[in-house]
Write a structure and sequence with these properties.
This protein is 54% helix and 12% strand.
Length: 138
């Protein structure tokens, strides 16, 4: 059973999101609420805990960034690409914050190992987020 991380729980509240699990054909998705109802993140119930957290963070990234994306996600490839990139940037940012909050040392942070552990090939974004964290530490 998935136990919700405190930070993830705070992010869900910040963006007014509800969380549900269901058997899906994909890792997860966000369903936009109508008539004042909250948006709902639906996560594939077959995923393990690490995958669940990654999917939730990715979907929160959609909630945070998709309002700034021009075009329709369903019909415009450029809009979809921009939307997915924004969601992945958010997910990677949150995982890098988590990595350092666990006490990992900036000097020993290996971007390739971190990217592989996250399951991403967006090496540049992992490097970028580590660099941003390093600037905060100065």
């Amino acid at each position: 059973m998935f136990v919700l991380d405190t930070n993830v729980s705070k992010l869900l509240k910040k963006y007014k999101l509800k969380l549900e699990f269901a058997p899906l054909h994909c890792p997860g998705l966000i369903v936009h609420g109508k008539n004042g109802k909250p948006d709902v993140i639906v996560v594939n119930s077959k995923l393990n805990d690490d995958q669940v957290e990654n999917v939730i963070l990715h979907e929160i990234g959609h909630a945070k960034n998709d309002g700034d994306v021009l075009g329709d996600y369903q019909t415009n490839d450029s809009a979809r690409s921009c939307s997915e990139h924004g969601a992945n940037v958010f997910w990677i940012h949150e995982k890098i914050k988590q990595y350092f909050a666990l006490g990992n040392d900036l000097d020993s942070a290996n971007w390739l190992s971190i990217a592989n552990a996250l399951g991403t090939t967006d090496y540049f974004q992992v490097q970028e987020e580590i660099h941003k964290y390093a600037l905060l530490e100065e």
